[in-house]
Amino acid sequence: MSQADGYNFAYLDEQTKRMIRRAILKAVAIPGYQVPFGGREMPLPHGWGTGGMQVTASVIGTDDRLKVIDQGADDTTNAISIRRFFARTAGVETTEKTADATLIQTRHRIPERPLKNGQILIYQVPVPEPLRFIEPRDSETRKMHALREYGAMQVKLYEDVARFGHIATSYDYPVMVNGRYMMCPSPIPKFDNPKMDRMPALQLFGAGFEKRIYAVPPYTEVKSLDFDDHPFEVQQWEGSCEICGSDHSFLDEVITDDAGSKMFVCSDTDYCRERLAEQSAATTEEVAL
Amino acid sequence: MSNTAQTPWQDIEPLLSVQQLSKFYAPGKGCGDVSFDLYPGEVLGIVGESGSGKSTLLNSLSARLAPDAGKVIYRSEQFGELDLYAGEESLRRQLMRSEWGIVHQHAADGLRMNVSAGANIGERLMAIGERHYGDIRARAEQWLQAVEIDSNRIDDKPAQFSGGMQQRLQIARNLVTHPRLIFMDEPTGGLDVSVQARLLDLLRTLVAQLGLSVIIVTHDLAVARLLAHRLMVMRRGEVVESGLTDQVLDDPQHPYTQLLVSSILQN
Ligand SMILES: Nc1ncnc2c1ncn2[C@@H]1O[C@H](COP(=O)(O)OP(=O)(O)OP(=O)(O)O)[C@@H](O)[C@H]1O
Ligand SMILES: [Mg+2]
Prior knowledge:
The complex is a heterodimer of chains A (289) and B (267).
Chain A: H1 14-29, E1 35-36, H2 50-59, E2 65-70, H3 77-90, E3 93-94, E4 103-107, E5 120-124, H4 138-146, H5 151-164, E6 175-177, E7 181-183, H6 193-196, E8 202-207, E9 212-216, E10 222-224, E11 251-255, E12 262-266, H7 269-288
Parallel strand pairs in A: 2-3, 2-4, 4-5, 5-8
Antiparallel strand pairs in A: 1-9, 6-7, 6-10, 8-9, 11-12
Chain B: E1 16-26, E2 29-38, E3 43-48, H1 54-61, E4 69-76, E5 80-83, H2 89-96, E6 100-103, H3 107-110, H4 117-127, H5 133-146, H6 163-175, E7 181-185, H7 193-210, E8 213-217, H8 221-227, E9 230-235, E10 238-244, H9 245-250, H10 255-266
Parallel strand pairs in B: 3-8, 3-9, 6-7, 7-8
Antiparallel strand pairs in B: 1-2, 1-4, 4-5, 9-10
The complex binds adenosine-5'-triphosphate and magnesium ion.
Adenosine-5'-triphosphate (ATP) binds at residues 25, 29-30, 48, 50-56, 219 of chain B.
């Protein structure tokens, strides 16, 4: 694919990219710390991942292969338009295969297939400040981070247990990065939290509206908050994926007809497809024997 | 009844030593050249009319407002003798959630209004590293009872509480980590007289039971008489008179104090 005329490579001007890269370098140097940056407007409304796109635009190179997912799927409108945007403005290859991608921009999921060192996972972040719910003032939350005053964060979990009898927070579940900074993992399901811990890939987070970038470098400790008597747990399902039979992936409930029939399928469409392909390859082999 | 202090203060070191503390927003607006010692177990009242600089002084004493001049020396359990404003802010904030308590005039300034009573009390415990939900909740229940709030209100938000209950919740939220020094700014302000009386009673009991040291700001001399061992009278930013509460109120020396005392007698 060739790059469209009239735009700079990957749409953003070089000066903005340099500024964002400096923010990224700082973010990588201080895992979990939110670095402010002077973001540019992207040709998409906020809430469509403009923070993630600015990060992607700043790190993407001509030989990168980009995958974009939205809730685990490569084929939603949002994922397709972001993928097309970079195919057009950067002329890069795109892929739906997790294993083949060098860059993965994501909204609300981490792929099921373990990521490798050398890959970069870029999260779209709507609200970057984990302490926001209890402290509206930015000057104060900055101080709380600086002084590691995280008692208030535990208050959120306390409220969950008091109200529901267990920690009910199931998305954007707060984590402690490298034993130092409290961080929002963005609205991924807590099912994905353990994947962040010591992940071999670099994780970058871009919040477009609040203009913050943060990062988790490869192999960094990421710990989900909990209580001694209410330890962190991930979601579990009774059944397995009705397409590929997976009993270990994050499942979405899909309504299949007007009568309200439901079924559970993998939210990671690429993972599901790969498993099916493997299974049919195995069956073909058996038949051939 | 008498509040005259019985302890031989001379033998012990002061908890707080204030030396020529000044903070002025404008001439006459703030507080100037204030010096005193506060001893363990002592309750000091700061009285004076509106605008006399009571809150300014209290905020400077409690590490929330840097003074223009002077020093506040605090003898900390954890950190030893501290020159408050010479040290790091992190240290001051650490004191505020461990050895100190701060009770605000407006409960909304001292409580987290969007979380439950239990979470309000538990926050300080969690801030110092407690991670057992069951223990935290049990302590919150104990402290609700200690401030005479039914423990089945533990999951209610402060907004569902009356003004007097909110103040008592604020007190519980502070006392849960067993602070030694409490700063209070008009804790009974804006409450009905009967509600005030109940709160004052509770405060007196807790102060005596826990051996707390307290600095309390009030413009209400009746409150001062009931709670404080010693008084400082402020006018236009200056301390015009200080001494044992009964002495100051029964035999005021400064004309301003005389005026203050007689005006309360009139109404
Ligand atoms: N942040 C500020 N900026 C400017 N002036 C201030 C500020 N805070 C207080 N002042 C002024 O300083 C003086 C002392 O105020 P302070 O609040 O200490 O009085 P107070 O004795 O607590 O009064 P009150 O009984 O009404 O609470 C007042 O004239 C007040 O207007
Ligand atoms: Mg005041």
